[in-house]
Design brief:
With about 230 residues, the chain is α/β, with parallel strands linked by helices. The protein folds into 2 domains: about 120 residues, Methylthiotransferase, N-terminal domain (Rossmann fold, 3-Layer(aba) Sandwich); about 80 residues, Transcription Regulator spoIIAA. The protein contains 8 helices and 12 strands. The protein has a 6-stranded parallel beta sheet, with helices on both faces. It has a two-stranded parallel ribbon with strand order 7-10. Strands 8-9 form a two-stranded antiparallel sheet. The longest helix is centred in the N-terminal third of the chain and has 15 residues. The mean pLDDT is about 95. InterPro entries: Methylthiotransferase_CS (IPR020612), Methylthiotransferase_N (IPR013848), Methylthiotransferase_N_sf (IPR038135), rSAM (IPR007197), rSAM_horseshoe (IPR023404), rSAM_sf (IPR058240). Keywords: 4Fe-4S, Iron, Iron-sulfur, Metal-binding, S-adenosyl-L-methionine. Its cofactor is [4Fe-4S] cluster. GO terms for molecular function: 4 iron, 4 sulfur cluster binding; metal ion binding; tRNA-2-methylthio-N(6)-dimethylallyladenosine(37) synthase activity.
Length: about 230
């Protein structure tokens, strides 16, 4: 019988995209999504660090998990996303109920880390900035999102370092996905039933990808996406 995974997503549309891709990944090791937390063998909190009191919202949700599982077997508790990236070690120390923290550029390794956790029973802190490897790995796994309106990440990170913003520290420097990767994933989403795709990024206008001596910008991407039959 397959195990159940519950994901609560905080914050931006990019986290929604990431949560959907986490579900696609963990299917490979026998997990299926549940919308009922109490049924879960694994609870993932995909967090946002932009909103006020973001960290306390995470601990509040962990309190709910503790209450729900007070008299039954504890689930594997994973804190993912930007709060995990910013406060990883502190979170593991502050609340022993947390088993794993995974930053937004590392979740492509979630399957290996889940399996390692059950083998070794050790807390895991995975907060590397390895965005290139992340998207290369995700390219191998079909996006199963079948909503009429879907999200598609084309760019991550920011180089602006504004005084008020944590994004460069939680999502890393600007990185643009491969032009072909984006078009291929868009075609998969349309084949799944999507008719509208929202392109995501911390700085979408900064999209810039160079391959084979050719430069692709956001305008090139939009023109190519427009050719996909089925998009409105």
């Amino acid at each position: 019988m397959s195990k159940k995974i519950f994901i609560k997503t905080f914050g931006c549309q990019m986290n929604e995209y990431d949560s959907n891709r986490i579900i696609d990944l963990v299917k490979l090791i026998g997990y299926e999504k549940t919308n009922n937390q109490i049924d879960a063998d694994c609870c993932v909190l995909n967090t946002c660090h932009i909103r006020s009191k973001a960290t306390e919202k995470v601990y509040s949700e962990i309190g709910r998990i503790k209450k729900n599982f007070k008299n039954i077997k504890k689930p594997l508790v994973i804190v993912a996303g930007c709060v995990a990236q910013a406060e990883s070690e502190e979170m593991l120390k502050r609340d022993p109920y947390i088993d794993m923290v995974i930053g937004p550029q590392s979740y492509h390794e979630i399957n290996d880390k889940i399996l390692n956790y059950f083998r070794e029973n050790k807390k895991i802190n995975l907060t590397e900035f390895n965005v290139i490897k992340k998207f290369d790995e995700l390219e191998k796994i079909k996006n199963s999102d079948s909503k009429i309106s879907s999200f598609l990440t084309i760019q991550e990170g920011c180089d602006k370092f504004c005084n008020f913003c944590v994004v460069p520290y939680t999502r890393g420097p600007e990185y643009s996905r491969s032009f072909d990767q984006i078009i291929n994933e868009a075609k998969i989403l349309v084949a799944n039933g999507s008719r509208e795709i929202t392109l995501l990024g911390q700085n979408v206008n900064a999209y810039y990808f160079k391959s084979g001596g050719k430069v692709y910008k956001l305008s090139n991407l939009l023109l190519e996406l427009e050719k996909i039959k089925g998009l409105v």
